[in-house]
Design brief:
single chain; mainly alpha; 0% strand
């Protein structure tokens, strides 16, 4: 199979983690990166978009205020929520 080289800038702590994993498993960094990329792209292809949780969520000021309000004063649980979480 033909290959090509890519380049990416990554945070130092991510590179350190990559190096540790490569040493622990005895595989090359290139192999780990290739496998991670393949897994990620496969997940993106197979999962519905709403199942993918972004690493960072950007809220409008109004949305952030609504989230804060719900966290500080959550609504009473519905009957269905109570049934869902009932351990009995």
């Amino acid at each position: 199979m033909a290959t090509t080289q890519i380049s990416a800038h990554i945070p130092n702590d991510l590179k350190a983690s990559l190096d540790r994993q490569a040493r622990a498993t005895g595989v090359t960094r290139a192999h780990l990166v290739q496998e991670a990329l393949l897994h990620h792209l496969q997940a993106l292809a197979e999962l519905p978009p709403e199942a993918i949780v972004p690493k960072r969520i950007v809220l409008t000021r109004e949305s952030a205020e609504r989230v804060r309000e719900l966290v500080e004063r959550p609504p009473e649980p519905t009957v269905d929520m109570k049934l869902l979480f009932d351990d009995r």
